[in-house]
Design a protein that fits this description.
By secondary structure, the chain is α/β, with parallel strands linked by helices. It is about 25% helix and about 20% strand. β15 and β16 form a beta hairpin. α5 runs parallel beside α6 and α12 runs parallel beside α13.
Length: about 575
Amino acid sequence: MPCRSLPVVLLTIIWMLGATCLEGVAGAAETGQRFVDHSLLVATEYPCTWPTYPFPRFQITHQRVIGPTSPYNVDVLLIDGNTGTQWDVPPHSVARPELKRPKSGPFGLAYTDKIEAWQLGGEACVIDTRELLDSAAPGVSPLVTGKFIEQFEREHRRLKFGDVVLFRSDYSDKYYRPLPAGNRFIADVLDRKAPGYPDPDPACMELISSRGVLTAGTDSASMGPLPDMAEDTHYAGLKHGMIWTESATNLGAISSTGAFYCMLGPKHENGPYGEARAFSIVGGDLPARLIDACRHKRAVDLSPTLSPRYPLTSPGSGTGQHRQTYVKIDFLYAEYLDMWHHAHLMDAACGTHLVPPAYALPPKGSNPQYSPEERGWLAEYEQEFGKRGTSSMTADRVPLDWTCGPLRVIDVRSLVGTTDRKNWPASPEITPAHLETAEREQGPIKPGDVVVFHTGHLDKHLRPAPNDAGVWAEPLLGKSEGWPAPGPAAIDYLKKKGVRCVATDAPDLGGVEAQRALATYWALGSREMVGVEFLRNVGGVPAKADAYFLFAALRVRDCHGGPGRAIVLY
């Protein structure tokens, strides 16, 4: 290529990249809002799990890859709630009421699946404790005392209900590194080779509790000061019904007040803690709206509880085609609490979860060999909808603002019962015509909207075993009608409207017909869109409410799914 052509080529490339980037942030730019991630990257070479025996190490297994045996990338996670950025709830330290022990109380039943959605967010109040970093002896935590709270209140305002108190020392920013350097994050402190991480003492927790604060966070590895004050500090806050984030990061990216902070994690049945995704929203008027919603408890939870008793993953339509079932793994018994610490083995598409583009798309430059049948499906798809794309966008690479936005519910319950029994397994198809009808009745779909299809399927069929076949098994086997699901034409329509995230209160966006399901996922990924699946209670959002959808998947590197939690604030 002649040198004089380079400027033109470079300008063209820059324009193309700029157009792609602008498309992804258009909604945020128009409103002035910005998302700030406060979550550590979960990966096997990072110190993302508690390092002492017998806590299990995090594992991700790429169980299936796109090729002749699978058109999808399928992952399985072995994950303990003390992994990466995480949250604690009262039963971590508060015993159940019926045990009648000195630390028993009603909050001993406030597990991760019982915490109300409004408590997960609020106004970030950042307490600057950086002067304490590395200031104590090896193995000892420098203590955040009440004086730091008093200083904050002198400079800003008195803390109150609806605030999220965040203790910022920059500890995780400095020490969360790949191993072996990452041993400095927790292991070296426990071995008394390095100073402990800063943490509040019990009196400090009592002080913020007295202000009505029910949500907190720290960028230290735990909320408990070492070597011997961890339980006292935990109990001082948790006995009042507090919850908090541990191992947050990047708290210096938000101001002392004003940001909306949120922490979302899967709802494990009877979970005393859990893995989570934490983030803030700053700029524009959105943070104030969301903060006000949390202060006034205007929130709706859209995620079901994760339990081995429920059908949370697909059993497949044939032998050997099932996904990893959700398994609870007890590994450490806490005698005082009469409770087992537990990890979970689960498919990355378990319960409410993310569908990133890389779920159904191969990476650039690869040439996967589909089965003969799927090669035929691909030819048909490309003839009608254009080339199937490529992508390396796994869950950890999906921008947070793609899965959050103004809620737009499309009620498709009228499609239930419209297929002919002789054609089962079949799912009623959501078409562009259905979307156009919804727009005529309710107004246009806007760029940045999160479109949620209200099918009612999980509300009706999600039941514990043995009454659980209506969710997956019977529709997949053609014993009952499948759930309504969008076809690729509907996805294409929504892309042209500026939608980046499509969600459903059905098991998935694909439906029960394998060819159409794959075409839908190809369309999603190829148009740089994402899905959120397995919602419930969409009908619980008040009609005509100015509602905002919030979902975030766990920040697991190279994960082709991503468990999480979805809520709506209004």
